[in-house]
Write a structure and sequence with these properties.
homodimer, Farnesyl Diphosphate Synthase, 343 residues, mainly alpha, 2 strands, two-stranded antiparallel sheet, 71% helix
Chain lengths: 343, 343
């Protein structure tokens, strides 16, 4: 781990406890208990709190205050509860994971059973629905001037709509062999990147930043999210299963399109024939190694790495609208961190 | 049908086309088409548009204008798009039906297959999630002053949370034999009545009505919703299957608690033994008739009728804060209509 990575991890870590405390306070396990326990289950199971940390850092960067010197529950001269917005974004993330796990019939999440496995599908649907409205309730509790609250809520609502659209596109693409890289990146923007954009732009809106700053932060968040997903796709191919926490090459096995396989396809590689076994259970580590070798040979791994790097650098440049300082440096560091991480 | 009922039906009918047009405009079937088709499927399959009609009538009653004389898309001197709020409430209703049908594994809704049957469970979950955020987007498009928009959104978000809580309570009660009438009514308030309350209170908020008026309308909506549910429970027992559109006595067959069966239980009737057959498919019309006869004998049918009537009358009295006029009369008529309907 580089010194920069260590600094970024410390910055995220340094805000995690405050985020966790706020989640516990804003989402108490109240009647009906089973519903609220299920709603909290995944939130309590862990998670880096990357998006809330980004949101809090943006608040600090926008206002030019030294990190961790302001009270997040009464931030700046207007005493805005910026933490309520951070919780809102994390709660949306949790809601989407719960519903996605039902849709994909995934059994595990964050090392624990998915909510629909630990409870049941009915409770998991309802827990997700509850978190959905709770996220809006949280975003309404920042105490920001009403015109800014309205804009933050617009951002939150359109973000949620886009996440749903992205998930629908992801499902639709599974049945199609002719998805283009452009379509794939559009799907990633909808499904993954918009929530980073919301995390980056909403604090600026709530704190009354200029439109130019809000737009730049939105672009930063989108780029960070895009690069995050490309790196995720790369790690699936290049990281040993035991470090990945799931089967290496699972995207290849499932026939999922990514920037890597779409590039290889365009280079004439028959990507559906890369793993020449009918039964996913028969796929060996050697099969994966050979398939990745062919993708490397086609230049597809390098292509995706270069793309993720370029998107990250573009995202970092967008931060130039912010005052220089530690918070801005850390936001740039987060962008690097997400594309340099090895798991 | 009484003259009053005819007038109420005409008032709802007279607003339905405008509501349908606004739904089509605010929820266009755009990319990804399958997602938006599934999201629109139930909305397009019918429905009385009772809640949007109530919302539009409240707007007219609060401002004291003659019904159907103002443009709902630019209502009053501030030209507020009150129709956007009406669509928002209907969209929330549709989202809850789609997810409820998945949870209850119901096959039919409004005479057509449930969304998870017509499409699939994944698409139905996602269609509901999409409608959820679209409802917030609609509520943000009224053009009302920001402080009122924030209050309307608060009302919408807390309403959604309560609907989820109500659904969770409903599920939890199925496994309990000791539910009290008070608990049942609390569940009904959460699951059903709060959306009527939102439909009645939100236009008043958006149009800047006094707090007293908003509170009274909220109370009116809650009472209308409570009485609506009690009448629903009564109709399940007293209406022939062919008119009901589902098996008469289905609540009894499923062992669902209602005001009727809870009263009977408190009178010493063994309500779980009312239908003495192990297999629901074996239940005959004569079995239902006999069971309803015992509930009548215990005074439970009359008890529920009286309760629904009293709640309705209380709801109507709350309208006295509004200016007299046709819109107010129609709102009182809706309260009567819902408790007098025979299907």
């Amino acid at each position: 781990m580089s010194a920069d990575s260590a600094r970024v991890e410390a910055a995220i870590e340094g805000r995690r406890e405050a985020v966790n405390d706020a989640i516990a306070e804003m989402l108490p396990v109240t009647r009906p208990e089973r519903l609220y326990e299920a709603s909290r289950y995944l939130l309590d199971a862990g998670g880096k709190r990357l998006r809330p940390a980004m949101l809090l850092l943006v608040a600090e960067a926008v206002t030019g205050v030294d990190p961790l010197t302001e009270d997040y529950r009464a931030f700046g001269p207007e005493e805005i509860d910026i933490m309520a917005a951070a919780v809102s974004v994390e709660v949306i993330q949790s809601f989407t994971l719960i519903h996605d796990d039902i849709m994909d019939d995934d059994d595990l999440r964050r090392g624990v059973p998915a909510v629909h496995r630990e409870y049941d599908t009915e409770t998991a649907i309802l827990a997700g629905d509850t978190l959905y409205s709770k996220a809006f309730e949280c975003m309404l509790q920042t105490g920001a001037p009403a015109d800014r609250s309205v804009r933050a809520l617009e951002k939150l609502a359109t973000t949620c709509t886009k996440i749903c659209e992205g998930q629908a596109l992801d499902v639709a693409f599974e049945a199609r062999g002719d998805v283009t890289t452009e379509e794939y990146l559009d799907m990633v923007e909808h499904k993954t990147a918009v929530l980073y954009a919301a995390a980056a732009a909403i604090p600026a809106v709530l704190l009354g930043a200029d439109e130019e700053v809000v737009d730049a932060l939105c672009g930063y968040g989108l780029d960070v999210g895009r690069a995050f997903q490309i790196q995720d796709d790369l790690l699936d191919l290049t990281t040993p299963s035991e470090r990945l926490g799931k089967q290496r090459g699972s995207d290849l096995i499932e026939g999922k399109r990514t920037v890597v396989t779409l590039h290889a396809r365009d280079q004439g590689v028959d990507v559906d024939a890369l793993l020449d076994t009918a039964d996913p259970a028969d796929v060996t580590e050697a099969d994966i190694e050979a398939a990745v070798g062919r993708l490397e040979g086609a230049g597809s791994i390098d292509h995706a790495r270069t793309m993720a790097r370029e998107i990250t650098d573009r995202g970092k440049r967008r931060l130039e609208v912010l005052p220089e300082g530690e918070a801005r440096e850390t936001l740039a560091g987060i962008a690097d961190y997400l594309v340099e991480r090895d798991y």
